Amino acid sequence: MSLQHAILVALTDGEKSGYDIAKQFDDSTGFFWRARHSQIYRELGKLKERGWASSQEIEQSGKPNRIVFSITAEGRKGLVEWSQKPSQVQELKDDFLVQLYALEHVDIEALRANILARRERHRDHLKQYQAKYDALEGSTNLTDIGRQLALEVALIYEREWAEWSERALARLSPEMLGPEALKLEQQAGATNVVPIARGEAD
Amino acid sequence: MSLQHAILVALTDGEKSGYDIAKQFDDSTGFFWRARHSQIYRELGKLKERGWASSQEIEQSGKPNRIVFSITAEGRKGLVEWSQKPSQVQELKDDFLVQLYALEHVDIEALRANILARRERHRDHLKQYQAKYDALEGSTNLTDIGRQLALEVALIYEREWAEWSERALARLSPEMLGPEALKLEQQAGATNVVPIARGEAD
DNA sequence: GACTCATATGACATTAATGACATATATATG
DNA sequence: CATATATATGTCATTAATGTCATATGAGTC
Questions:
Q1: Local confidence band at B181 (pLDDT 50, 70, 90 cut-offs)
Q2: I want to staple B22 with a disulfide (CB 3.0 to 4.6 A). Which of A169, B37, B150, B179 is the partner?
Q3: Residue numbers in B near A161 (CB within 8 A)
């Protein structure tokens, strides 16, 4: 349901085509919501049916004609009403945390590699958000206050994940885990990694 | 795809019925993954087909028979392989952040109420996670290290959201926003809230 | 005695989202 | 000259997940 609203928000700063919106979503400007172009076109169609957006075809040679969408008065009303009903709190739901939770049953070296990759990813994201955030520094108009607050969430999210990754890598290092873990593995009944596959089959 | 693995993880500490798993997921023990029972039963069926779980029917009077599932050797292998391919990084995707990003176009008082409710929610969650975390204190076996690390993520997540909420409430308070915001609203062309609905219709 | 709750399983309709396929051309790179 | 990339729109199959309905009963509450 929310993609429609995210698209409307994208339209608040001027008319855009589906292609424009998709690009904006992909080029990391779509910080807090994303979608593939196939879904965007579908939702744009629905927005138009609903009267929340209007469209205008712009002739082009060669490429297919651009169809640019604008938000309507109804659409703006839709945004306000949307903001008036409480949004769903994002619960943690993450493969990776499930894997950690079941550390005894997974490949720890693979997990570490994964954490390393994630750390890099989070650092990259952090830089991007920081640049956006810096650009708003000192601004006190409504829009910018909202964007600052939203970007703060994003900054904290990325920074904390990056820092946690650092700590996790240390705690899961063979040196750190090694002797202790081995001892305890035997004691616990040696469930770690693949001790079950007695047959070595497959 | 991951629900299957989350279910398998739930089965690593003993055989369970679909009902048990659903309860575990709902009772907040399903910290990092959740699902409705309808989906759980479906996925249990698939796990069985795949040979990753086996089931056993337990006769009961009155209620439908319990069907308890156990993880198989193949299932354990599945878990290891699952952990070996990099998991998807969870990107921020949140209605609420989109609303903040479009602060000029939404109902700020409603947003504040929303933030307040979220703060309470995050505080509750924080307590739950903290209790779980405290119970693991000092433990150095593999499983517990994994759980500590996973719970740390959860703790940080909830704590940071709660603290951010506090700051956001302050920055979005009428006193803080009032005069400044009003000034800038006029200057910006007064796009805030519902200034569009000239007709007062609907 | 009526009502709700916990136990227990499952089918089915619908929604949200991804990913693959399809089409068409101008421009830049090797 | 061939190939890739950017522009631009869309359909369609499939997957993942929610939510609703259906069924059956024992135990506790008002």
A1: low
A2: B37
A3: 153
Asked whether the predicted pLDDT for residue A137 surpasses 70, the reply is: yes
Banded model confidence at residue A53, pLDDT cuts 50, 70, 90:
very high
DSSP β-bridge partners for residue A17: A68
What is the percent of chain A with per-residue pLDDT over 90, rounded to a whole number? Answer: 78
Q: Are the beta carbons of B192 and B105 closer than 8 angstroms?
A: yes
| A5 compared with A26, residue with greater pLDDT | A5
The encoded tokens of residue B76 equal: 């354990």
Residue among B166, B79, B181, B77 at smallest CA distance from A152: B166
| Cβ(A95)–Cβ(B92) below 8 Å | no
Chain B residue with Cα closest to A77 = B194
Whether pLDDT at B187 is above 50:
no
Q: How far apart are CA A85 and CA B110, in angstroms?
A: 7
Closest residue, CA to C1' of D9: A64
Where does the pLDDT of residue A112 fall: very low under 50, low under 70, confident under 90, or very high at 90 and above?
A: very high
The DSSP letter of residue B194 is S
Cross-chain Cβ contact A84/B107 below 8 Å: yes
> What are the residues whose beta carbons fall under 8 Å from the beta carbon of A110, sequence distance 6 or more?
B83, B84, B85
B171 to chain A: which residues are within 8 Å by CB?
145, 149
**Nearest one of B22, B124, B147, B187 to A142, comparing CA atoms:** B187
Residues contacting residue B196 through CB under 8 Å, at least 6 positions apart: A73, A76, A77
Confidence check: pLDDT of A93 > 60: yes
